[in-house]
Amino acid sequence: MNGDARAVFVKACHNSGPYAPGCTGNKKDFAVECRLWHGIILKDFVAHMQYEQTPSLPIPDESSAAHSARVADHIRDSIRSAGGQISFAEFMHEALYAPGLGYYSAGATKFGADGDFITAPEVSTVYGNVVARQCAEVLAGIDAGGVLEFGAGTGKLAADMLQAFARLGAMPTAYKILEVSADLRERQESLLRREVPQFVDKVSWLTDMPENHRGVIVANEVLDALPVERFVRRSDAIFQLGVGLQNNEFVPVERPAAALLAAAVADIEADMGARFADGFVSEVSLAVPAWIADIGDCLRRGVAFLFDYGLSRREYYAPDRSDGWLRCHFRHHAHNDPYIYPGIQDITTWVDFSAVAGAAVSNGLDIVGYVTQSQFLTGGGLNVEMENFAALPLPQQLELSSQIKTLTLPGEMGENFKCIALGRGEVPTPSAFQNADRTRTL
Predict the structure, then answer these.
(1) Which tens digits make up the pLDDT trace of 269-300?
(2) CATH of the domain at 142
(3) Which of 51, 255, 282, 285 could staple 324 via S-S, CB 3.0–4.6 A?
(4) How many domains does the chain have?
(5) Pair type for strands 229-234 and 146-150
(6) Which domain holds residue 389?
(7) Phi-psi region of 386 (alpha: psi -120 to 50; beta: other; left: phi over 0)
(8) Taking Cα atoms as reference points, which of 151, 183, 436, 440 lies closest to residue 308?
């Protein structure tokens, strides 16, 4: 979808109501585009951040502030062109993905000490090693099976997994990375040539979903950054939360929800068995079904491992979560104001894994398993990775111990991050899901 087509589509489907009549042929394209731009989306739970009120956030440097001002002007123009307001999904899309301007398309550092967040692959090589072990269990039963990774970020996970595959004697026929950012592809290829030059010939880069993929799909923190609609219940009606301008500043505005959003909220309430309380605010991802449908169209036989921070529907829409799960990340500080620092801060939401599971079943995929990150690691081979721990020098023991705590402890990443595995065809249940499966909670 080119820039002009995207602008027309987003305006029609978000300003007139998400996926309004006349847009049904393109709503999947919108989800696909967001997914592809997600190639540089990598983020972490607040374990490595401070949760801050906005007045105490770091002050952007001069260059970042100037860029944010350009992004803000771009969004203001969109709001004025749309008649004074846009949906939150459109605001989030423009802040994150506007070509050359959005947070994920402008090339600034996102992850690591110099960025805004840190992720599991950057925490420890152990993470990639265990993921590779689980992938190897699936690949063992599939002739000529390969790996497809969504959004490889720096390339760290790919490098770790390729080295692990080699040690396991389970090298896939190919390792494909879905990446539309030329800058990110260059960074990934540079890291792979530096870290694993012997395996670079196994790697190829794609800009579109492949067909008839056999093997495994790995998506580390993809779903959480698809633009979401925000809503609020007002008495007997659902209202859509959008974004307008007041004194040239971004402000939330309300309007009656379009049919698709109202229906989605009604389905959630029916599933919950009760209507939301008056004033209840939350989010719903209308892009998740299309994204999962893409997985279903792509995967002929194998397993898709989807890692993200999120919860079951009953946890996500619990009465005490009456302000939703929207979070922003800036310089390793977490807060909940999406209207400041557009273009230089991350905007994200937790994932409703029940919605993921429902979309998977609707698209002919099996739910292979659903576990916390801690359960995935401990059940998937962490003990093997730690066999030589006692032989390590003390400084390495301390460093590795700290990494494992970050990955597995409930107060860190262990409980809030989940892995859901979706399968098609006759595939074995990977060991990480055999003793602690939580699928029944979905």
Answers:
(1) 999 999 999 999 999 999 999 999 999 999 99
(2) 3.40.50.12710
(3) 282
(4) 1
(5) unpaired
(6) 1-442
(7) alpha
(8) 151
